[in-house]
Amino acid sequence: MTAQTPRPGSRSLLIAGGGLASLALAFALKQAHGPALAVTVIDPHGADPARHRGRAYALAAGGRRMLTQLGLWERIAAAAEPIAEMVISDSRLADPVRPVFLTFGPEEEDQPDRAVGEPFAHMVEAEPLARALSEACRGAGVDIRTGGVVRAVPEGAAIRAELTAGAPLRADLLVAADGARSRLREAARIGWVGWSYPQVGIVATIGHARPHRGRAFEHFLPAGPFAILPLRDGGSLGHRSSIVWTERADEADALLSGEPDEVLAEIERRFTLDLGTLALEHGPSRHPLAFGIARAFRAERLALLGDSAHVIHPIAGQGLNLGLADAAALAEAVTGALRLGLDPGGPDVLRAYERARRFDSFAMAAATDGLNRLFSNDALPLRLARDLGLGIVDRLPRLKRFFIGEAAASRGALSRLMRGEAL
Ligand SMILES: Cc1cc2nc3c(=O)[nH]c(=O)nc-3n(C[C@H](O)[C@H](O)[C@H](O)COP(=O)(O)OP(=O)(O)OC[C@H]3O[C@@H](n4cnc5c(N)ncnc54)[C@H](O)[C@@H]3O)c2cc1C
Questions:
Q1: Residue 403 to residues 83, 89, 141, 383, 417, Cα–Cα distance (Å)
Q2: 376 within domain boundaries
């Protein structure tokens, strides 16, 4: 079948996968380059926001600055709750009290690289975020298609993508944003270092009678962290939080197979009744957890983005944030080439992108893996060591700022959009 080629004179980008970071990349580039760059996103689900229902993400300051710069933040602000304080405790499930070892609060906010009063993260509901991104993409002229990329073959100055249906597409650059099990990464023979955790992530929206006051909790329990993350008020009891509950995979099935009131009782044991009566508003859904990083973030005319390049444990809520940082860096590298009249899919662009993102992604993946190993463990010496460690960090403001700076993607060489600057 003859491949469809964009209009002569214009450049083209094809993105396989319509997740949140992929749509952010598509919009950033289309907004910056208009008709000079044809942008196509293809996904078996199109860009249907409904499939994100019930999910919420901790969006770090860099991602929020990017969305603000793109003019999207005001469209999703009504679905975003600032995290005013983060409280960390380490205990067993049956412990009568959960001693607090670490708090991150407003005193950490006055960092040189973050505006005074800028929260280090917001909890953002994924469905409104996906809707804002897909509407913005369509409004800007991004071609969003339903389908999949089966195979891609570089052909001289372009790459030819074969689709599940219809004529192949040709583009200057193909972005593989097709998730952790990326077919395109495998087809390009890019190596992957990774493993599955013997844990699953259970996600649910919980209604509660008392306000959370913007507080997030992370309880380190022996099976893994149990996070309570504040959402905008609403739901049957007036207030809501999202939970990310890490549990041993073999236990999770038994815990989740009961009647809804039994599942809620298990949640109550971990959530506690500190925020009053609880109700299950959405979920629970179960997600396999894994670690993985691609040996390269590029091949000829191909860039990996998001979970196709790196998969990390949700202990620090950073997976999507890494994907948005990828999108910002790739948008900057492509823009640099286009402004100079150069090939946006050429090796210099891909090298610059990989240089900007691979070390940062590896460092975050390794840090989250280490934290999970340290905390998802009930051995007494380890418990004592980590509790001492957390206590020390809590008393050393500079160290704490470093950790928050890392989590808020405020440190290191950030790309322009992550700093809140135009492309
Ligand atoms: C329990 C849990 C909690 C989390 N909490 C947070 C958090 O608080 N903050 C945070 O930053 N991150 C968090 N994450 C991580 C975050 O969910 C992921 O990093 C992010 O969703 C990955 O997005 P993605 O677009 O790269 O991949 P995906 O969301 O997997 O999207 C891949 C897309 O590619 C499409 N696709 C697949 N194959 C093809 C093909 N051949 N052609 C075209 N399209 C294809 C799929 O349909 C899909 O739409 C969490 C993860 C888990 C498991």
A1: 16, 16, 39, 20, 22
A2: yes
Q: Whose CA is nearest to atom 9 of ligand 1?
A: 317
Residue nearest to atom 39 of ligand 1 (CA): 178
In 3D, which of 152, 16, 62 has the Cα closest to residue 416?
A: 62
Q: What is the pLDDT of residues 298-350, one digit of tens each?
A: 999 999 999 999 999 998 888 999 999 999 999 999 999 999 999 999 999 99
Domains contained in the chain, number: 1
Q: Which domain holds residue 46?
A: 11-194+291-419
Q: What is the CATH number of the domain that holds 71?
A: 3.50.50.60
Q: Which residues line ligand 1 (CB under 6 A)?
A: 16-22, 42-45, 57-58, 148-149, 177-179, 183, 201, 203, 244, 287, 306-307, 314, 317-321, 323
Query: pLDDT tens-digit profile of 246-290?
Result: 999 989 998 898 888 999 999 999 998 999 999 999 999 999 999
- Ramachandran class of 118: left when φ > 0, alpha when ψ lies in -120 to 50, beta otherwise: beta
In whole angstroms, give the CA distance from residue 296 to residue 186. Answer: 12
Under a CB-based contact definition with an 8 Å cutoff, are residues 410 and 360 in contact?
no
Residue 212 included in any domain: no
Is 172 a member of any domain? yes
233 found inside a domain: no
Tokens of 286: 């179960």
